[in-house]
Amino acid sequence: MKPRVLVCCNTRVRNEYLVGEALARLEQLADWQWLASEGTSTRPGVWGGPSEDAADTTRLLAKLAEGYDALVVCHGSPYVDAQVFAAAPRLKFVGELEGDRFANRIDVEAAARRGIRVVDTTHGSSLPVAEWALALMLIGLRNAGEQFRRLVRGDEFRRSRDDPGFRLGELTGRRVGLIGLGHIGRRLVELLQPFDCSIVAYDPYVSKELAHALHVGLGPLERVMSDTEIVVCTAPLTPRTHRMLGAPELDLLQPDAVFVNVSRGAIVDPDAMIARAGRGDIRVCLDVFDPEPIPAGSPIRDLPNVFLSPHIAGVTAACGPRFFSFMVDELERFLGGYETLYDITSVTLANRRGALLPT
After folding, report:
1. CB 274 within 8 A of CB 301
2. d(CA 120, CA 200)
3. Cα dist. 259→73, 188, 226, 307, 347 in Å?
4. CATH for 126-308?
5. Distance from C-alpha of 254 to C-alpha of 134, rounded to nearest angstrom
6. Are 251 and 272 in contact (CB under 8 A)?
C-alpha cells in the first residue's frame, strides 16, 4: 500500500506550485490529496499565514483523522500544532513549502515531542537570490550603476582610468565577505568558485566543519566588514540581526569596497547607509531597503554610487514549482528510509529567534 500524503494550501499554491515533474513523482510515490484552505493571518510581522479561520482547522483535523503519513502545508493552511498532531496518529512527516523558517505555521517543538519530522523548502527561492547577489557584485565592481545614470542623463560617453570600475572592476581573486552562510550564502559560494575568490563569513550558527567543507573562513563581523573588498549580506532578519549594521560597522568598509544587500533592509540602519554611501568612496548595491518601497524623496535614490532594485532577487516564476519539487525530494528520502536534508531543528529555530547557541 502506498503511503498517504495530504497537501493543505490555498488554490493559488495548488495551481502554481503543484505542477510538472514533481507532481508526477508524488503520484508515483504516494496516494495524495489536496485540502483547500484559503485562510489568512492578521498577525503583525507574519508573512503568508497561517489561517486564523477556525473552520480551516476543523476541516484539517477531520481530514487527518482519515489517516495520513505525511502532511505538506503552505499559504492558507491553519497552524499545525499539538491538537493537529493528536488527530493524526499515523503522521510522521510535516513539510512547509514556503515561508516557515520562522516556525509561523508549524509548532516544531510539539512535533518533536511526537517524533514527527519537520522540513522546510523555503530555500527554493535562495537560488535566484544568490544569482542576483552575484550580479550585484559585478555591477558594483564595474561601477555600472553610475555609468547607467550618466548614459540615461545623456552625458557624454566616456571611460576614465580614474573610474573604480576600471581600476578594480574584476571579481577574479577578490576577497569576499559574507554576512550569513545559510542557503543563499552557500549557493553564492558555489557560484563564486570559478572566480577563485577568498571568502570569509560571519555566521554564529554555522559549524567550523561546514565552513571547512565549503573552503570558507569564519570570522567576527568586524573582520568581515573591514578585511574584504566585497561584502554581501545574506542573513535573515531576526531580533538579533535587526539594525545589526549601523554606522560603526559600515565605517569599517574599505575605500573602494562594494557592499551588497539581498536579505532584508531592516538589518541595515538606513540613515547610516545613506551617510556611508554619501561619502562616495564605496559602491552600494541594494535589492532591499528599510522602508519598502523606498520613499520617493529618500537620498538613497539619488546617490550616483548606489544601484537599486525593488526586492526582486527571490521573485521568479520558477520558485513556486521548485519549492514543491524540493519537498517531493524530501518525501522520497523520508519514505524511502533515508535522512531528510532540510529539517527545521533547534539550531534553525535559535537562528530565527535571535537566540544564542550554548557554548
Report:
1. no
2. 27
3. 36, 15, 11, 10, 28
4. 3.40.50.720
5. 20
6. no
Cell numbers for 271, please give them: 540613515
| pLDDT, tens digit, 9 for 90 and up, residues 154-166 | 998 777 899 999 9
Provide the 8-state DSSP code for 235. Answer: P
Alpha carbon 81 to its chain centroid, in Å, reads: 24
Q: What residues are annotated to the active site?
A: 264, 292, 311
Q: What is the DSSP string of 90-152?
A: T--EEEESSS-TT-SSB-HHHHHHTT-EEEE-GGGGHHHHHHHHHHHHHHHHTTHHHHHHHHH
Q: 172-228 pLDDT, tens per residue?
A: 999 999 999 999 999 999 999 999 999 999 999 999 999 999 999 999 999 999 999
Q: Which amino acid is at 251?
A: D
User: Global pTM?
Assistant: 0.94
Cell of 162: 580614474
Cα–Cα dist 56/231, whole Å: 45
Select the CATH number that applies to the domain covering 4-120+317-353 from these four: 3.40.50.620, 1.20.200.10, 3.40.50.720, 1.10.3720.10: 3.40.50.720
